[in-house]
């Protein structure tokens, strides 16, 4: 045989809700360290395609978009199947897709409709999707196809901060933090590491309705680092995990919040 050996297949990351905001930042930073990326979105196809082009420009060997609603369990399983059919491997699964409540309602006015919508997308969907993903990651690792699979959950400071005007969101994120711990414990014997990345106040479409109020509060010291977080801040944290340097750590919470979680006196 002559010539150079074929290049090693690139690692593959799946980012749910990867088309906009934090997900888009994660996709771009993973692309920059050489991951091929599967970009999931729910409805904004144009945003997903723009993200795909950006990923290719940042260095992703391959980038593809996948429409699926992660709140729907069958849709989630279809997403998983389509990614595997396209790429044949998954090295990193990032559960990022999430929604804010349509309206911020006081705890005493909270509605079951908003509860079901927010917990369906932010907790129930990712739990059962990760259950299905976990079985595939075990198979891929035991088959020698993926040496070092990882799962990341994007939670929020709302996992630990009580906001009485969006109980559903706080409960969903607190639950998702436990989901991350559960999968970390369950998958460690299979050589699969699981992390929680917990962002603070990040400048995206989700925070646009409260942008002015949070700008004032950040300037006044809401977080010790007195600025908005960016999708790139979160993306770089995920990329640091994806580089694989935390090989003897699992279940860690990586705060990306400008120090907002610190208790100060
Ligand atoms: P965003 O700007 O509103 O973007 C949301 C992304 O998720 C979009 O790509 C959207 O796709 C997708 N998405 C929403 N529902 C989906 C579903 N059911 N199935 C598949 N994709 C879905 O939100 P973001 O601020 O980037 O937030 C991303 C994650 O970070 C969320 O989990 C959020 O809770 C969390 N977070 C955000 C902040 C913050 O300050 N922004 C802070 C902490 C944590 P379409 O456009 O196609 O709908």
UniProtKB/TrEMBL annotation:
Family annotation (PROSITE patterns): ADH_SHORT
One MF annotation (Gene Ontology) recorded for this entry: 3-oxoacyl-[acyl-carrier-protein] reductase (NADPH) activity
Residues that span the membrane, as ranges: none
EC number(s) recorded for this UniProt protein: 1.1.1.100
Keywords for the protein's UniProt record, in alphabetical order: Oxidoreductase
Similarity-based family: Belongs to the short-chain dehydrogenases/reductases (SDR) family.
Name of the protein in question: 3-oxoacyl-[acyl-carrier-protein] reductase FabG
Source species of the chain: Aquisphaera giovannonii
